Amino acid sequence: MLGFVWAFSQAGVLAEMADNNPNVVVVSQDMGPFSPFSEQHPDRFFDVGISEANLVGVAAGLAHAGKLPFVVAMAPFVSMRSFEQIRDDCSYNRNGIKIIAPCSGLEAGHWGATHHSVEDLALLRLIPGMTVLCPADPGEGTKAVLAAAEVDGPVYIRFGYIQPIDGYDEDFVIGKAPVLREGSDMAILATGAVVTDALKAHDLLKEQGVSARVLNMHSIKPIDREAIEKAAEEIGRIVTVEEHFVNGGLGGAVAEILAEKGKGRLVRLGLKDEFVMEVAPYPDILKLVGLDAESIAASAKAMLG
């Protein structure tokens, strides 16, 4: 459960932030100690138990009172059970809570479909004023948390089974997608943990003589429209990769932009219109749904006809 590891590693970041800002508070969903924040700032750590709607409501109230609240809660539950509170108490009322959400995508495959978080991007990017971030490696996760603190409005940060990407140390700019690999035959636009698989797919394609540009779409809303339009203009073939239903998430957002532009061919890789009922370790689930490196490479190459 790497998403939990990296989400909880932000406790030190927030503790340091709280040392310099008396308004920083953390509201947790029955997660136990959030060390070292909960030890260093016990009067600013609130565990409200397994009650996601109340969790977000409490955080929104704290924000309304001038605090800077960070919510720590599992992605499938905070995004769906407290959707109304995120919409009304936070976005509508302009209360800037920051949600750190581990257990995203298919990371909790061993617990079954009830613990998959594969609707959250679609749900939350619908909400006006919402910022939705999906970091691809642990260092980027920390940068996303720091960037979220500066956003005037609510922010959702999706922590999945992210692994360190060798040599990756790009500046984190909300709304800008870093180009991780250059290419001219197609563009692979990936988000979150499967960015690592997209990079492996790039290498597999290169061995087959296929040149693939790889973009890290760490910002789902606002999305980097300029990078998407540039890929459509310069390459024309685009593949989106996400641990999410293909409807409404990254693939949906890219499809909207391409449709408005009237240019580009798109293949969306993700979950089709059905639940993943199999219970298996994370790597096996990825392979099952076609999001492992080999499957991404095969789907991308198929675009070449």
Map the helices and strands:
Elements: H1 2-8, H2 10-20, E1 24-28, H3 37-40, E2 45-47, H4 52-64, E3 68-72, H5 75-80, H6 83-92, E4 98-101, H7 120-125, E5 131-133, H8 138-149, E6 155-158, E7 179-181, E8 186-190, H9 195-207, E9 212-216, E10 219-221, H10 225-234, E11 237-245, H11 250-261, E12 265-271, H12 282-288, H13 293-302
Parallel strand pairs: 1-2, 1-3, 3-4, 4-6, 5-6, 8-9, 8-11, 11-12
Antiparallel strand pairs: 5-10, 7-9
Number of domains: 2
Instruction: State the fourth-level CATH superfamily of the largest domain.
Output: Thiamin diphosphate (ThDP)-binding fold, Pyr/PP domains
How large a portion of the residues is in β-strands, by DSSP E? 15-25%
Q: Give the strand order of the largest sheet, numbering strands 1, 2, ... along the chain.
A: 2-1-3-4-6-5-10
**What would CATH call the class of the largest domain?**
Alpha Beta
**C-alpha termini separation:** 38 Å
Shape: globular
Structure description:
The chain folds into 2 domains: 2-158, Thiamin diphosphate (ThDP)-binding fold, Pyr/PP domains (Rossmann fold); 179-302, Rossmann fold, CATH 3.40.50. The protein contains 13 helices and 12 strands. The chain has helices at residues 2-8, 10-20, 37-40, 52-64, 75-80, 83-92, 120-125, 138-149, 195-207, 225-234, 250-261, 282-288, 293-302, and strands at residues 24-28, 45-47, 68-72, 98-101, 131-133, 155-158, 179-181, 186-190, 212-216, 219-221, 237-245, 265-271. Strands 2-1-3-4-6-5-10 form a 7-stranded mixed beta sheet, with helices on both faces.
